[in-house]
Amino acid sequence: MRARTRAWLAGLVVRRIQTKGIDLTQLSFIPEPTKVPLQRDGVDPLPRLAELRATDPVHRLDLPFDFAVYLITGQDETRAVLAERTRFSNDIRHLFPGTGPANAGDIGGLGFADAPVHTRLRKILTPEFTMRRLARLEPAIEATVAARLDALAAAGPPADLARELSFPVPFQTICELLGLDLSDRDEFARLGSARFDATGGAAAAFGAVSVQRAFLMDAVARQRVEPGPGLIGQIIREEGDAISDRDLAGLVDGVFTGGYETTAGMISLSTMVLLRDPAYAAVVRDGTRAEVDRAVEELLRYLSVVQVAFPRFAREDMDLLGTPLRAGDVVIASLSGANRDPYSAGADPDAFDPARVPTSGHLAFGHGVHRCIGAELARMELRIVLPALLRRFPDLAVAVPQQELAFRQLSFVYGVDELPVTF
Ligand code: HEM
């Protein structure tokens, strides 16, 4: 009976992931302890995460599955697991009965793929994310930011910073990167807002995901005939028929999903944190390039908007820093936990310190072969948008107390969908 219940619950999770991506908000049966890495108090992780890091850094979650799920919360454990190439797999297809290798792209692109598929697909994307290629995007990002700051000024005060700035900047940046033309962008934006807007009900959101995929397939097919100036056209020029429209649309969808809400979350939450103290805002508004870069790194560490890394599956029975794991067990790395580890972050890891130089770097972009491919692009966007915002609006302030803001609940990517500001 217990086995049947487990199978039924596992089936529910899998169906939900298949239809809506990984969003646990609707899974009310998940036991409280498992929600810990996704819950926060404002921008801070819950104290329980620090307790676990100190007392049980490889913590077995109480879940009704036939395999064990472990939550790791420390910097060392996280680095050790994410750096593993052979003993862990990212491939979740064994949870999706009936899916073959050809369907890997449907499930989640790079993040859920292993070598050799991951190596092949990542190699196709990498040249587009080098500093040299990204430098070409800089003027476009600056122009987008300037236009969005004008839009913010026209909308208020008060105005919604998330709507006017935090979402449009990464959206336009990714469209520029991909080489979508202006009419495509309007259509894509319309689909994108349906995808992330729950007011139309779940069915509308599910519909929008598949319509968005279909839209990308269509954009890829059109560029196959006439390759455009961005990433889609470049890949078509370099790969030709070696990459199918479907694989390419999947890669593009992964880039969009990976780079949109993450960067938007960072822009809104960073603004909130910088406005807590005029001295913080001054560093970013008036600081040297090195000071701004350091503050951006600290914001990435402190906010850790991607709360957990992609799940890792043990390929074999093994010992993980003293804990025995069986083949098939799952490890969830809490990046917000690891980034507040005093061992690596340095003194007072729960404090925001724009001049901090962490003892051993941070893990906001992950680590190892799946480390975020868009890290340099995200840094570039933040380095452009945050100083420009603070310079343009010297009296910028969040319009409501923090406890009135609607922070995301149980979302893998943390953030706020609205941020009312005055200026
Ligand atoms: C501040 C913004 C961002 C944060 C915090 C972030 C964070 C992350 C993290 C933690 C991972 C997973 C690492 C792992 O499980 O090992 C990841 C993977 C990924 N990110 Fe980002 N990301 C950001 C922006 C972007 C941007 C701008 C893009 C592209 C335009 C992007 C595209 C991707 C892709 C394609 C992957 C999968 C890489 C792979 O599996 O090989 N991300 N990101």
Automatic annotation (TrEMBL):
Essential cofactor(s): heme
Signal peptide: none
InterPro entries (alphabetical): Cyt_P450, Cyt_P450_B, Cyt_P450_CS, Cyt_P450_sf
Superkingdom, natural source: Bacteria
Record's keyword terms, sorted: Heme, Iron, Metal-binding, Monooxygenase, Oxidoreductase
Family: Belongs to the cytochrome P450 family.
UniProt-recorded name of the protein: Cytochrome P450
Upper classification of the organism: Bacteria, Bacillati, Actinomycetota, Actinomycetes, Geodermatophilales
